[in-house]
Please model this.
Amino acid sequence: MLNLSRRHSATKCGKTKKRDCTCPIWVTGSLHGKKLRKSLGIRNWESAQKIVRDWEARVGAAMVSVKEAFERYIADCEARGLRSETLRKYRLMQRELLGEFGGCPLDAVGIEELSMYREKWTLAPGTARTKIGLLRAFFHFCLERGWIEKNPALLLKHPRAVHKPTLPVSDEDFEKLLRATEHFPVGGAYKERTGERLKAFILTLRYSGLRIQDCALLKREKLRDGRIFLYSQKTNVPVWVPIPEVVVKELEKFDGEYFFWSGQGLVKTTLGNWQRSLERLGKIAGVKFHAHQLRDSFAIGLLTKGVPLETVAILLGNSLKICERHYSPWIQARQDILEDAVRRTF
Model:
């Protein structure tokens, strides 16, 4: 037999203990032979009654809290060998969910509670979609283990997102960036050759199409016969990317196992250092850009010269669907077909 009660707050509710107060609801009693006394983590009386009825109807149901479930989920993710970046996202969500629901049982977290949690987000549509995907993955894990009867996160709808056309760095702006490397302040781990290494870095980004992390961790052994070979960190797809001779010459100026990393410290720290250097370079050159635009310049340069989208997708280490979403307006063959269709109506 389970009993519900409110733990009244002296500051919010006062001594009157109003029937319509919103103080947290607790459950006490015995469930399937086990003593139980805990907060439900909710304040709606009808919802609390439904949860208790469901518990009593499920013979031998496992009482797993959000905290316990997420701890086991993180342990499972680590055992599966997920990337550190992915684990960092899950740990961030773990802190948020514990702050939101605490020791609340999983059964007490429904679509209404998740909707209220999402209303507190101040995220871009793309980031919100990713976060909803993480929530769905966590609750799917709980569903597979029989801790809940359905996945409440599936009822969360994705925000409306408008995909803006990808804009590359123009040739004129890229020349400004190259000239600005000559005036870049001396400092950091590379001392007097900071500007030279930064020039090699943006040339590699522009003519290889690498992501900034792949470029920052580029090893010397991956450069062979004017080509760069690597596994994309994001997709684990093997990619050979030919680069111009001028880029090869710039890279060969430097010694060490890595071109743009000392090999010491955290990868996240190195990535942050290069992002700040590129931002500072843009201010010196008077060009507003980010590293991914150089990757876009590489892709769009190929598409406008008639290279098939499938080939570009392989070189970028992306799926065909992702490339079509971002680069569809730049596909030269498709544009020619559209123009011919219009001309036939003249």
Remarks:
- The longest helix spans residues 125-144.
- The radius of gyration is 27 Å.
- The chain has 14 helices and six strands.
- Strands lie at 2-6, 25-31, 34-39, 223-224, 227-231, 238-242.
